[in-house]
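On clarity, I found the account of how folds are encoded harder to follow than it need be. Since the whole study asks how a given chain folds, the encoding of that fold should be made plain. For the editor and my fellow referees, an illustration may be useful. An entry of this sort, consisting of the sequence and the corresponding backbone structure tokens, reads as follows:

:::
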Amino acid sequence: MPLLVLLLGFFFPRLIIVLLWFFTGWFRDAFGGILLPLLGLIFLPLTTLWYGISEVYFPGTVQTVGLVVAVLLDLGILGGGARRRRTA
């Protein structure tokens, strides 16, 4: 289940974050308030989604490695998003 949510979240991260916020307690457990998830929803949606899900399902090293990958994807370093747009 969490991997399916992450797969859908890769393509629609903001939608999945909103749905998980309303229908599960994952984000309420992972974050203390509403400010950090709201900022994450705006600026780093994949990182926020990964952190919210990984707090429940993936403790330890898997969580850290996934968090680094999610930050790199959000910043566009992985996947060459900015480079590909420049050359086209």
Residues 61-75 form the longest helix (15 residues). The chain has seven helices and no strands. Residues 2-87 form one domain. The chain has one domain: 2-87.
